[in-house]
Amino acid sequence: VQLQASGGGLVQAGGSLRLSCVASGRTFYTMGWFRQAPGKEREWVSTIISSGARISYADSVKGRFTISRDSAKNTVYLQMNSLKPEDTAVYYCAAKNAHIIMSAMNRADMYDYWGQGTLVTVSS
Predict the structure, then answer these.
(1) pLDDT of residue 53
(2) What is the helix (H) or strand (E) element at residue 37, kind and residue range?
(3) What does the pLDDT profile of the chain (124 residues) look like in tens digits?
(4) Which of 2, 45, 61, 92 has the fewest CB atoms within 10 Å, i.e. the most exposed one?
(5) Is 91 within 8 Å of 45 (Cβ atoms)?
(6) What distances in angstroms separate CA 8 from CA 38, 52, 55, 61, 77, one per listed residue?
(7) Distant-in-sequence, close-in-space partners of 41: CB < 8 Å, separation ≥ 6
(8) Pairing of the two strands 9-12 and 118-123
(9) What pairing do the DSSP bridges indicate for beta strands 2-6 and 54-57?
């Protein structure tokens, strides 16, 4: 089982990026994105249950980021618009083959599988 994240890069403030995370080996019921900025703790960004039965976002990205998934490709996406310098971080995809209740979606210990991370740098 492997999660492969990609799509990071350098973008100016106000720009957009789309991250992808391909799951190989199995299909996961719950998939999410976390991020970790230099010198900071890992922070939850967003989670999607099944094919969108439930979606949740951190307040810091609500209205700017959109999570989605393509079940046929076993891929989850994170469309990031109106990027800010404070969005600079390594972004990790995470997965669990079970439901996670909404109140626990932001807990990293609820996820069983993690990708290697992709770096997003937003310049001011």
Answers:
(1) 85
(2) none
(3) 899 999 999 999 999 999 999 999 888 999 999 999 999 999 999 999 988 889 999 999 999 999 999 989 999 999 999 999 999 999 999 999 999 999 999 999 999 999 999 999 999 9
(4) 2
(5) yes
(6) 16, 23, 22, 16, 12
(7) none
(8) parallel
(9) unpaired
What's the first-to-final CA gap in the chain, in angstroms?
38
**What does each C-alpha distance from 15 to 48, 85, 97, 102 come to in angstroms?**
23, 10, 33, 29
Question: Which residues fall within 8 angstroms of residue 22, CB to CB, at 6 or more apart?
Answer: 3, 4, 6, 73, 74, 75
Tokens 């492969």 sit on residue? 4
d(CA 74, CA 86): 29
Q: Which amino acid is at 32?
A: G
Residue 25 region by backbone torsions, left for phi larger than 0, else alpha for psi between -120 and 50, else beta: left
Q: Please give the Cα distance from 31 to 98 (Å, whole number).
A: 10
CA distance 9 to 24: 23
Which residue type occupies 93? C
